[in-house]
Amino acid sequence: MTTNNDLSDEWEALNRRERREKARAIIEDMETLQDSPDSLKTDVAALVGTESFEEAVDDLDVSWTDRL
User: Fold this and answer.
1) What is the tally of structural domains in the chain?
2) Interval 44-55: pLDDT, tens
3) Structural domain boundaries enclosing 56
4) Alpha-carbon span 24 to 43, nearest angstrom
């Protein structure tokens, strides 16, 4: 069984771009779930390096549009 600590260790090995790509993938997965668990929001915030899920989404939105 994978725990949040195990996932955090795996994330530490990822570079910033890989973390952000994983965060975007989690957000996309969350959009398909009717009731996504709060732990996914925590994971996204941890991957992006923000205090909250909402801040992470805002940060990802800004960085994504900057790339276009």
Assistant:
1) 1
2) 999 999 999 999
3) 4-67
4) 11
